Amino acid sequence: MKRADELGKLADSFNDMSKELLEKSRLLEQEKERLDVVVNGIGAGLALVTKEYRITWMNPILKGWLREDRLTLPCYAVIGGENAPCLDCPITCPDLDKIADEVMKFKDGANGERIFRHRVFPLNHAIEEEGEFLVVLEDITEQKQMEETMIQTDKLSALGIMASSFAHEVNNPLATINVYAEDLIDRIQAGDEDLDEDEMEHYLRKIKENTERCKRITGNLLNFSRKNDWTEDQIRVKEIIENSVSLVEHQLKKQRIQLELHVDEALPAVNGDGLKLMQVIVNLINNAVDAMETEGRLVVSASETNGEAVSIKVKDSGHGIPAEAMDKLFDPFFTTKPIGKGTGLGLSVCYGIIQQFGGNITIDSKPSEGTTVEIQLLAERSLKAGHGVENQAGKSEVPDGYGNSALESMEVGYDVSNKIVSR
Ligand SMILES: Nc1ncnc2c1ncn2[C@@H]1O[C@H](COP(=O)(O)OP(=O)(O)OP(=O)(O)O)[C@@H](O)[C@H]1O
Ligand SMILES: [Mg+2]
């Protein structure tokens, strides 16, 4: 009997165990289903890859993106379309200790070219020694297209603002020219005897002044629309500063402005277009001169910073810039000067040129004390060494539409430079 009892107990506990096992496998099944829903529902392509680049598992989304006949190839071939392992992947370089993150394009068959974000995470779990990695692929085509559209819209609206400001800026001098010319014609046709040479000269001077204003505006605008004509040279900054100053010396004397030049003798060369740099410096000096009216102190200096960059500063003791104007200074057509004096294009052109140099331009101003504009350009030797000036805008690529011919580059919008052009 005892034996039978023991057998019965054993059978009961087997029964319990098998029930428990059934329950556990049901729960596991449920968990798996849940996981499948999550894995397939996140919209990303997922794959597990061994350190030999073999794909051991992938979710149906990824399978749908890849070519079926290539699914057995190593991950760099089937996903990256490469012939050899990718260099910045943690599978290739475990020492990198980072997640690989890159954006890549490939054809996903049905939909043509699409853009994917591709990330690789090392998996640190119990089977670590096997070296497994999780590859996550996200289709970011729509997001990228949206960004593109936004950039285009931004450009278009900037163009719209530019075009309407341009029309406004040019219409005023054109209307003035029209009035003077019509008046002159009327008086000549009417045989007006009071019209002497002096008066004729006055009319013609007004017409010339306004024509020059139009020319300055269009000349400066060309700086936005042209990209080519950039002469890459090794520039001696000292020479450029001296040449720029000589262009405005007359104006400085006229306004009794005291000029100080501090240029380091051993200044390294910079690479770029010397005439463009001159255009920038002349523009900055002219702004400084305008801010000082008569009397005042202008300091133009250049020194080497950190052995990597050349810093050029134009400092004035003028009226300064009110805080509310600071973030508009580089906007095209932003000016506080009276009509006929400023076009508001000077600083925006400077900004574009310095961007093209891969440099930086910053303005520091204290109302009623003065303003300092600083330009930082990469020294030629650090270019060779592969360093960079940290650009404020976060990038140093050439923006659309800067650079023009040497002659136009001098049409800065000021009397002094215009005199040089017209010689
Ligand atoms: N050194 C400075 N001191 C005070 N204000 C300045 C200085 N530099 C620029 N500004 C302000 O910034 C504005 C924009 O300067 P920007 O050079 O772009 O145009 P502008 O000098 O008005 O006209 P232009 O196109 O003829 O140069 C000026 O109108 C002025 O208000
Ligand atoms: Mg200016």
Automatic annotation (TrEMBL):
Entries under Gene3D superfamilies matching the protein: 1.10.287.130, Histidine kinase-like ATPase, C-terminal domain (3.30.565.10), PAS domain (3.30.450.20)
Primary subcellular site in the record, as a coarse category: membrane
UniProt xrefs under InterPro entries: HAMP_dom, HATPase_C_sf, HATPase_dom, His_kinase_dom, HisK_dim/P_dom, HisK_dim/P_sf, Sig_transdc_His_kin-like_C
Gene Ontology molecular function terms on file: ATP binding; phosphorelay sensor kinase activity
Membrane topology, from the record: Multi-pass membrane protein
Enzyme Commission number(s) from the entry: 2.7.13.3
Sorted UniProt keywords: ATP-binding, Cell membrane, Kinase, Membrane, Nucleotide-binding, Phosphoprotein, Transferase, Two-component regulatory system
Domain Histidine kinase per the UniProt entry, residue ranges: 165-381
CDD domains with a match to the protein in the record: HAMP (cd06225), HisKA (cd00082)
GO CC terms in record: plasma membrane
Catalytic class of the enzyme: transferase
Catalytic reaction(s) noted: ATP + protein L-histidine = ADP + protein N-phospho-L-histidine
Name of the protein in question: histidine kinase
Provenance organism: Mesobacillus boroniphilus JCM 21738
Lineage: Bacteria, Bacillati, Bacillota, Bacilli, Bacillales
